[in-house]
Write a structure and sequence with these properties.
Elements: E1 19-20, E2 25-26, H1 40-43, H2 52-67, E3 75-79, H3 81-92, E4 99-103
Parallel strand pairs: 3-4
Antiparallel strand pairs: 1-2
Helix pairs in contact: 2-3
Length: about 110
């Protein structure tokens, strides 16, 4: 195969699990397809304890790509929040990515 594509869904986005409830705990039984009307507002919340959680998740993806799939040259594409994640990851791990493409990266929140 000349190339492979891997995609990560940020915590609390899309169909990923959510940190919900008063104490913001992971709910592994959360099923986005069985959301009840009264749970909609809780489901729509996006919550992480710190931005670094996104970096840890992306770091794990890179580790899996390199160790499990034996792919050494990685080009990362990040848009918006993903662009901020890729940029920060590259800053912390300068030799880990071969290339990166950033589209409207989120470098700060006003």
């Amino acid at each position: 195969v000349p190339y492979s594509i891997f995609v990560i869904n940020h915590r609390g986005h899309g169909y990923s699990e959510r940190m919900i409830g008063k104490n913001k705990q992971w709910n592994p039984k959360w099923d986005v397809y069985k959301v009840k009307d009264e749970e909609i507002l809780e489901y729509r919340k996006i919550y992480v304890r710190k931005f670094g959680d996104y970096i840890k998740d992306f770091s794990m993806l890179v580790k899996i790509i390199k160790e499990k799939y034996k792919i050494e040259k990685i080009t990362a594409l990040g848009h918006s929040l993903g662009g901020g994640v890729v940029a920060r990851y590259a800053e912390l791990n300068p030799n880990s990515l071969d290339k990166m493409v950033l589209s409207a990266p989120m470098f700060s929140i006003m």
